[in-house]
Amino acid sequence: MQIQKRIFLVFSFSAIVIAIAFQLLQLSKLDIEKAELPLINRMPKFEFTNLQDQPFTNIDLPHNQPIVFMYLDPSCDECDQMVKKIIKHFDEFEKVNLIMVSEADKSLILSFSEKYALETYDNINVLIDHQELMYKEFNLIEYPSFVVYDANLNHLQTVDQYVTLSIVVKYVRKALKKTR
Fold first, then answer.
1. Average pLDDT over residues 13-22
2. pTM: predicted TM-score of the whole model, two decimal places
């Protein structure tokens, strides 16, 4: 009986030690994974397609000018209203490069672009995201969403909840101040 108790205690103690070791291993693994995650301070590399079916990448961005990405869906009422407001208050956006990106069908995006004559603005690019990069690389889910970068392509702010024009303009102004 005494031997059985000792064997039981040894096995119990061993199980506890193994469980603790496993927990410590899991915690250190999480720390390593967190350490390997990149900080999103710089703009991720991307390749979208413009409305002429040409690739548009980071290389195509103008230099020394803040960049504002707008993630939208042409069928989204909030997106429609936001673009109307941007056009109405375009003076707030004339010194930044505004990149409007959608995963929608090209015909819908083209129609949306024509509706607001977006191609007439030199600093607006309307692009198609065939690879879901706005979701995968920019971490955007909601429509409309904005990501603001300064002229050095450093991330300033992501605006993806409770989006108002005044909030977006606040960060556009901040990006412009950093450019001067």
1. 56
2. 0.76
